Amino acid sequence: MSVTSPATTACAAAEQTRAVVREFLTARLAGDTGRLVELFADEVDWLLAENPGVPWIRPRSTAAECAAQFTELMEHTVPEDARARVDTFLVDGTDAVLMGHLAGTVRTTGKSFSGPFALHLTVENGRITRHHLYENSRSIAEACTP
Q: pLDDT tens, 71-126?
């Protein structure tokens, strides 16, 4: 009979969280929306401040909708100008927080945006169940305004 301690369980959860988040980042960088759909849970707690002037920012809740955010972002921005840097990657059990800086250019206006971001992800049963992104929404809205 094996007994699993709470510390062992927490460590295993953290390892799984870290692995799934790394897969998520790899799929995002590759534009692999099929893999993103697999990584997101069927239902996701998605939070990104509503920004009516930004076409890729909208409510989402399914794996397919969440994965589509990447495609929509690429349709409305200049891919060659997209930059994101992760400075901090913290994991505590099923939760991960990434902090860094992002920048890009809106295709229709030619205006740039940039600013810090924080992304809170939760991984349960090997899939992302929470995606809360905090970013410089004002800079992005201004870049979308003609």
A: 999 999 999 999 999 999 999 999 999 999 999 999 999 999 999 999 999 999 99
Distances from the Cα of 63 to the Cα of 36, 37, 138, angstroms: 8, 5, 27
E strand or H helix at 63 = helix 63-76
Output the six-digit token pair for 46.
């998605």
Q: Which residues contact 44 (CB under 8 A, 6 or more apart)?
A: 60, 61, 62, 63, 66, 128, 129, 130, 131
Write down the pTM of the prediction.
0.90
Q: Which long-range contacts does 47-56 make (Cβ < 8 Å, 24+ apart)?
A: 47/130, 47/131, 47/132, 47/133, 48/132, 48/133, 48/135, 49/134, 49/135, 49/137, 51/137, 51/140, 51/141, 53/141, 53/144, 53/145, 54/137, 54/140, 54/141, 54/144, 55/144
Bridging pattern class, strands 127-135 and 40-48: parallel
